[in-house]
Structures are given as structure tokens and as C-alpha cells.
């Protein structure tokens, strides 16, 4: 695969962080009663940066201690994109939440409901009612807020790049985007969510589409590192294939 260098550009916003541009203005600290669910959500759901409006509630537990929770929040800090989801946690141990990658949640826009068949499939994919299988689990550190994306090999600075080098015309000049961190893999490659907004008249914009992007530690990108999300509420299989193609898996120290 070809490697394209991403050049530093001061013109891009410095707020390319997990918490977005309003970090420091809005209190992003989680204050609920189930921080393990919060930890799984911000490391599983694209665009969930852990807003103060995030709420959760444990609604069911199986005989092996797994829990299923209802979780509500907003995507990319956009109050027009409120959602709710069901999330399954396998276990909690030593300050970490353990869960299955890719299919630990289902998500829909606020105001809609899940069919029982969707809930049953979620449980099946997470071995609900079966003995725990640690070989299938990954973990996330239980925190009160989502941390910034930083590249340790570039002095811990936030990632800033020339968007033209990556998008190649995919984003029009009259559009803007919000870039939020998802997590890193064991090779220090961050994965980002890119939410694109299109002019909607009267100096307003509306959400248009989402991409996911992987960067190498040296701020280079391969041709397979950028992908358009086809369905904002049913992307688990597509994201799984993207991560497998690029040998990317969430890593927690």
C-alpha cells in the first residue's frame, strides 16, 4: 500500500481531541452510577465523546455477572443527534471494564425502540447466560471523562494535519468537520471519527456523514485508513471489517 505523508498545518483547529472543541466550556465529567458502562460506550460507539448529558441504567444481569445497560448520549456534541443504546459488560475487574469488541452494543436515534429480535441477537453475540470467556474480551480503563488523543512519538502534541492530503476532495470547501478520537491500538495508531456538516441556509449547517480514519505514529496514512460509514446506527460489521483490514484493535494499558 502507498504511504502518504500528512503535513503539519496550523490552519486546522487545535481542538482535535476526544472531548471536542467545547472541552473546558462544558463539564465533560461523568457523574452517573455505572462508570463501567460509560467506559465501554466511549470506547465502542463512534462519535460518543462522553457528554455531561450521558445517562445509563443497568436493566438486566445474567447468572454469570454480565450486565446489560441502557445508555443515552449525543453524537459529536450535536444535540440534534441524540441516541440511546443497549450495552453489555462482561465483567469489571481492577479498574477496567471488560467487553466483547464490535458487537457489545446496539444503537438507535432517541425516540425509537429496539425490537426483541435485536435484543436477543445482542445477547447471543455476547454469550448471555453462558460461562465467561476471557479469551473473547478486550478491556477499557474506567474513567470519568474521555481522554485526549495524543501521539507520544511527537512529543505528546495533538494531531494536526492538512485535510487535503487525506480527504482528496471528499469534503467540499463549504463543508466543515468535527474530528473526535476513538482510541489507540497497541502500535500507538489512533482511530478518529470525522463528522461532516453541510450548509443548511441561514448560516446554519446540518450533519451529513461520518468517516473513520487511522493515523500511523509518524502521522502518515495508508490508502485503507479512511472509510465512509454507510449507516450511522448499524455500522458494527462494517467497522469490524475496517479494523481487521488494518490490523487495528483497541488497546488499554
Distance between the termini: 29 Å
Q: What can be said about the biggest beta sheet?
A: 4 strands, antiparallel
Average pLDDT:
82
**What's the overall geometry?**
globular
When the domains are counted, the total is: 2
Q: Oligomer, anyone?
A: single chain
How much is the radius of gyration in Å?
18 Å
Q: Helix share of residues?
A: 10-25%
Label the structural class: mainly beta
> In which order are the strands of the major sheet placed?
2-3-4-7
- H/E topology pattern: EHEEEEEEHEHEEEEEH
Q: Are there runs of 5+ residues with pLDDT below 50, and where?
A: 1-25, 149-160
Give the tally of β-strands.
13
Count every helix, treating DSSP H or I runs of 4 or more residues as helices.
Answer: 4
Residue share in β-strands: 25-35%
What does this 3D model show about the protein?
With 253 residues, the protein is mainly beta. It has two domains: 3-17 and 148-245, no CATH class; 35-141. The protein has four helices and 13 strands. Strands 2-3-4-7 form a four-stranded antiparallel beta sheet. The protein has a four-stranded antiparallel beta sheet with strand order 9-10-11-13, with no helix packed on it. Strand 2 (55-61) and strand 3 (67-75) form a beta hairpin. It is globular.
Amino acid at each position: 500500500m502507498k504511504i502518504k505523508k500528512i503535513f503539519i498545518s496550523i490552519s486546522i483547529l487545535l481542538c482535535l481531541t476526544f472531548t471536542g472543541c467545547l472541552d473546558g466550556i462544558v463539564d465533560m465529567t461523568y457523574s452517573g452510577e455505572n462508570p463501567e458502562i460509560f467506559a465501554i460506550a466511549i470506547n465502542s460507539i463512534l462519535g460518543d465523546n462522553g457528554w455531561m448529558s450521558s445517562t445509563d441504567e443497568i436493566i438486566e444481569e445474567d447468572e454469570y455477572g454480565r450486565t446489560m445497560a441502557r445508555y443515552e448520549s449525543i453524537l459529536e456534541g450535536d444535540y440534534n443527534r441524540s441516541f440511546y443504546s443497549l450495552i453489555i459488560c462482561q465483567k469489571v475487574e481492577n479498574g477496567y471494564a471488560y467487553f466483547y469488541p464490535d458487537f457489545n452494543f446496539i444503537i438507535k436515534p432517541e425516540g425509537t425502540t429496539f425490537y426483541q429480535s435485536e435484543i436477543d441477537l445482542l445477547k447471543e453475540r455476547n454469550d448471555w447466560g453462558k460461562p465467561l470467556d476471557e479469551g473473547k474480551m478486550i478491556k477499557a480503563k474506567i474513567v470519568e471523562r474521555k481522554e485526549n488523543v495524543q501521539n507520544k512519538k511527537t512529543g505528546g502534541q495533538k494531531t494536526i494535519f492538512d485535510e487535503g492530503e487525506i480527504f482528496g476532495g471528499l469534503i467540499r470547501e463549504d463543508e466543515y468537520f468535527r474530528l473526535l478520537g476513538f482510541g489507540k491500538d497497541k502500535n500507538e495508531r489512533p482511530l478518529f471519527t470525522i463528522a461532516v456538516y453541510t450548509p443548511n441556509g441561514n448560516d446554519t449547517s446540518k450533519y451529513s456523514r461520518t468517516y473513520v480514519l487511522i493515523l500511523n505514529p509518524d502521522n502518515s496514512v495508508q490508502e485503507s485508513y479512511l472509510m465512509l460509514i454507510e449507516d450511522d446506527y448499524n455500522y458494527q460489521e462494517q467497522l469490524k471489517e475496517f479494523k481487521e483490514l488494518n490490523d487495528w484493535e483497541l488497546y488499554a494499558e
